[in-house]
């Protein structure tokens, strides 16, 4: 059996202002939205992407 590591850090780029931020994903809740710390734009998943990342 191989050991697998869960990656909890995600790098987000704001489509409005271009700010790049690395955030740690919560392990005790679901987070569907992210507010940019620079311009306050709300980032959310694309509606045509399924939960496993396929279109």
Overall pLDDT:
86
Strand portion, in percent?
Answer: 25-35%
**Alpha plus pi helix count:** 0
SSE-based structural type: mainly beta
Biggest beta sheet attributes:
2 strands, antiparallel
Find the count of extended strands (DSSP E, 2+ residues).
Answer: 4
Radius of gyration: 14 Å
Which sequence of strands runs across the widest sheet? 1-2
Structure description:
With 55 residues, this protein is mainly β. The protein has strands at residues 9-13, 20-24, 34-35, 42-43. The chain has a two-stranded antiparallel sheet with strand order 1-2. A hairpin with a 6-residue loop joins strand 3 and strand 4 (42-43). The chain starts with 8 loop residues before the first strand and ends in a 12-residue tail after the last strand. The mean pLDDT is 86.
């Amino acid at each position: 059996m191989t050991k697998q590591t869960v990656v909890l850090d995600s790098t987000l780029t704001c489509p409005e202002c271009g700010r790049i931020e690395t955030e740690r994903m919560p392990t005790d809740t679901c987070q569907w939205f992210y507010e940019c710390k620079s311009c306050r734009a709300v980032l959310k998943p694309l509606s045509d992407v399924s939960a496993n990342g396929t279109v």
